[in-house]
């Protein structure tokens, strides 16, 4: 489980598709501690298991295996060496949940459609799949690239959140532009409610 509070931004070193799919990123110096082999880490909101630790000329590196389903469902397959990624270690039981509970299981991807400054914030609009949008409510929660955010508004085709200055500085959100593709994870409670209501006529996540 994760809390949607990004603790550092890493840099992609290598991405291997195919049978030996894996992702390697350089850990930032700001991380409070490095993960260990077997640990879970959210990379742009996608839960990955650390398989190898290393070092290059710049600093420590972390590698994780990535299976085909993950490449298909998330934005990880779009990453290139030099791209920056949000990082969050798995929560410990005594850790505060500063955002909201996340599984790191991405529900789908969205595309940034608008960035509009408003005083010290930036309103960010993201077009997303109906299966995710119908689980979002104003003042509810959504994770964008693993960052826990509050939904400002939601329509049939897109949702809107507001980014404070700290979020833009401390995560990859500061580099978003119109057209950026992002990972989305809907609220965990909403997904369970939908599942329980399905026998009463509710639609399943992923249905059209």
Keywords:
2 domains; mainly beta; globular; 12% helix; Elongation Factor Tu (Ef-tu), domain 3; six-stranded antiparallel beta barrel; 208 residues; 4 helices
Explain the layout of strands and helices.
Elements: E1 8-16, E2 22-26, E3 40-43, E4 46-55, E5 60-65, H1 68-73, E6 84-89, E7 108-118, E8 121-127, H2 130-133, E9 141-144, E10 147-154, E11 158-163, H3 165-170, E12 181-186, H4 188-197
Antiparallel strand pairs: 1-2, 1-6, 2-5, 3-4, 3-6, 4-5, 7-8, 7-12, 8-11, 9-10, 9-12, 10-11
Can you offer a commentary on this structure?
With 208 residues, this protein is mainly beta. The chain has 2 domains: 8-89, Elongation Factor Tu (Ef-tu), domain 3 (Beta Barrel); 108-200, Beta Barrel (Elongation Factor Tu (Ef-tu), domain 3). 12% of the residues lie in helices and 39% in strands. The protein contains 4 helices and 12 strands; from the N terminus they run E-E-E-E-E-H-E-E-E-H-E-E-E-H-E-H. It has helices at 68-73, 130-133, 165-170, 188-197, and strands at residues 8-16, 22-26, 40-43, 46-55, 60-65, 84-89, 108-118, 121-127, 141-144, 147-154, 158-163, 181-186. The strands form 2 sheets. The chain has a 6-stranded antiparallel β-barrel with strand order 1-2-5-4-3-6. The protein has a 6-stranded antiparallel β-barrel with strand order 7-8-11-10-9-12. The longest helix is centred in the C-terminal third of the chain and has 10 residues, at 188-197. The mean pLDDT is 92.
